Amino acid sequence: MARLPIKLQPGASGDRIDGWDTDPEGRSVLKVRVRARPVDGEANAALVKFLAKALGVSRSSVVLERGGQSRLKMIMVEGLDEAGLKARIDAATGEAG
To answer: CA of 1: how far to CAs of 23, 55, 67, 80, 84, in Å?
Structure first.
């Protein structure tokens, strides 16, 4: 199981991964945009669905662990270790590992 820190931007023009950024405490976070608005959990649901598709895992393997009401979130991805998760993110964003 791997942890994935996310900085979510809801209400974007499209669903996409923008790459890595740094949070206010200096930790790496993955910037993700989704079209869904932050109403009734729609943006969180869209994030889980989008990440599952982008990472090539089932939707049930992607769990919002922390940050349901915040832009900074912690996602758990079952079935992948940290290295496998990074490789799939790099492939999804076109970045070199």
So the answer is: 22, 13, 18, 5, 10
C-alpha pair distances (Å), 16 with each of 25, 73, 79, 81:
24, 16, 22, 22
Only one residue has tokens 């993700």, namely 32
Which tens digits make up the pLDDT trace of 12-49? Answer: 999 999 999 998 889 999 999 999 999 999 999 999 99
Cβ atoms 81, 4 nearer than 8 A: no
CB 51 within 8 A of CB 45: no
The pTM for the full model equals 0.92
**Residues 28, 31, 37, 40: is their CA dihedral positive or negative?**
negative
- Express each pLDDT in 61-78 by its tens digit: 999 999 999 999 999 999
Helices (H) and strands (E) in the chain, counts: 2, 5
